[in-house]
Design brief:
This is Dipeptidase PepV. The protein is an alpha+beta fold. It has helices spanning 6-21, 23-34, 51-66, 128-143, 165-172, 275-283, 290-303, 352-365, 386-399, 443-460; strands at residues 70-73, 78-83, 89-95, 114-115, 118-120, 151-157, 180-183, 186-187, 191-194, 196-205, 214-219, 229-235, 246-251, 254-260, 317-318, 322-323, 325-333, 337-346, 369-376, 379-380, 406-408, 420-422, 425-426, 440-442. It has 2 domains: 6-194 and 379-460, Aminopeptidase (3-Layer(aba) Sandwich); 196-374, Alpha-Beta Plaits, CATH 3.30.70.360. A hairpin with a 2-residue loop joins strand 4 and strand 5 (118-120). It is elongated, with a radius of gyration of 23 Å. Residues 1-6 have low confidence and may be disordered.
Length: 463
């Protein structure tokens, strides 16, 4: 492995300057893709994740061709843009799908507007901005004719937000695996550990409508987002305990109760305020009976305001890798069927099989079935590995800040490939706006993160 000294430092400076020259073109390319509403939709013959993700994927491939790179895709599920020669390959893994916009935006969610040096909109950070930035980092490396020993491939999936089936397809169908790499889809300075995850969709048909007829109860926009708003519609009148964020309307013989909470990423549910829990707490003094009562009891007794899994018997804590988190994301009841989602993440001292068994037993004890379960393994790359060492060194060289690699609850694409970790784009101390209304990024910080990405790509391309 080559030692990074003055030569690499000069290369970093050259890359930084080149990317500043490309800034206007790069930001325009990012805005163009952000204006595509690439939320997963109904599959089409040539668009397995729907029209939006396919349009964003096509836009990326067209950008790669326009810039003169080799491009390819795996059946419209995941694409790549590549430069260089050599048997080994550096992989930079991003994604161009996004979570739904939700409510509460200051500027249009898909407008990609810039105000006072800030870019607003879905995907600016997660993950279109960093991914397209990596393509321009590739262009900067090529245009400067910097010597590299490994090829560099920027890979971009179209289904990261709904389970990463795009990368699984890439792996299972024998496409080339990176030797080393990172995903610019989390935080700096580098993430050496990601929690294991268990995700559940639970529910049942409605067999008993109870004493109070519930016409509708629902809320949430994704399993990995704290339920930001929730609504209950009941035929007749019910008792509602006044609470902040909860409103009551009576009309046409119905009572409508609405709650507005605060969204947060499913890996940090304690930072949000779950609207479904808020609403049910406000109406819990009513004896609904039937299956709705079962749903309400489960949510309040086994999830409630605790977000560390204690009520479900899956609380674990580890000094290095944190605590268990449990997020209630989506709830639905329409009088015919009901369902809810649980997103559970646990530190390295947890036993995944025990976690799954405990939660399944609790779900079954309330007469619900597990309709679907998915698991994601934890990720661990030693702090003294070539990969983590190089990334932390690049971060320090580019920022002047000496930071230790970190463990997170969020899951990233890095779990899908060996010898890969998450690296950027958010800086320590920045507010977490990913998956929330008003996702935004200061252009100066976005550019700095892309400069760091470019230096890391160049560094990893050296043997």
């Amino acid at each position: 492995m080559k030692e990074s000294g003055e030569y690499f430092g000069m290369s970093y400076e050259m890359l930084n300057e080149k990317l500043l020259e490309l800034q206007d073109e790069m930001i325009a390319a990012i805005q163009q893709n952000m204006r595509i509403e690439s939320v997963k939709g109904e599959p089409l013959p040539d668009a397995p994740y729907g029209a939006g993700p396919k349009a964003a994927l096509d836009d990326m491939l067209a950008l790669g061709e326009k810039l003169g790179f080799r491009t390819g895709h795996a059946d419209n599920r995941i694409g790549w843009i590549e430069y260089g020669d050599g048997e080994e390959m550096v992989g930079i893994l991003g994604h161009i799908d996004v979570v739904p916009a939700g409510e509460g935006w200051k500027y249009p969610a898909y407008g990609a507007e810039i105000h006072d040096g800030v870019l607003w909109g879905r995907g600016c950070l997660d993950d279109k901005g960093p991914t397209i930035g990596a393509v321009y980092a590739l262009k900067a490396i090529r245009d400067l004719e910097l010597p590299i020993d490994r090829r560099i491939r920027v890979i971009f999936g179209a289904d990261e937000e709904s389970g990463s089936s795009c990368v699984k397809y890439y792996v299972e169908n024998g496409y080339e695996m990176p030797t080393i790499g990172f995903t610019p889809d989390a935080e700096f300075p580098a993430i050496f550990y990601e929690k294991g995850m268990s995700n559940f969709i639970a529910g049942s048909k409605v067999y008993d409508k109870g004493e109070i007829e519930v016409e509708y109860f629902g809320g949430g926009i994704a399993a990995n987002i704290v339920t930001p708003a929730c609504k209950l519609i009941v035929n007749g009148s019910i008792k509602v305990t006044p609470a902040e964020g909860v409103t009551v309307t009576e009309a046409d013989g119905k009572t409508i109760v609405e709650a507005v909470g605060a969204s947060a990423h499913g890996s940090t549910p304690h930072l949000g305020k779950n609207a479904a829990v808020m609403l049910l707490n406000a109406v819990k003094d009513n004896e609904f009976g039937g299956d709705f009562q079962q749903l309400m009891d489960f949510i309040l007794e086994k999830v409630g305001t605790e977000t560390n899994g204690r009520f479900l018997g899956v609380y674990y804590a580890d000094e290095e890798t944190g605590e268990t988190t449990v997020n209630l994301g989506i709830v639905e009841y329409d009088g015919e069927a009901l369902k809810f989602t649980l997103d559970v993440r646990y530190p390295k001292n947890a036993d995944p099989e025990v976690v799954d068994d405990m939660i399944i037993n609790h779900i079954n004890s309330y007469t619900f079935d597990v309709l679907k379960k998915a698991n994601a393994k934890s990720l661990y790359v030693p702090k003294d590995s070539e990969l983590v060492t190089k990334l932390v060194k690049v971060y320090e060289a580019e920022t002047g800040q000496k930071e230790e690699p970190i463990a997170i609850g969020g899951g990233t694409y890095a779990k899908e490939f060996p010898n890969m970790v998450a690296f950027g784009p958010q800086f320590p101390g920045d507010p977490d706006v990913i998956h929330q209304p008003n996702e935004r990024v200061e252009l100066d910080k976005l550019m700095k993160s892309i400069q760091i990405t470019a230096a890391a790509m160049y560094e990893l391309a050296q043997k």
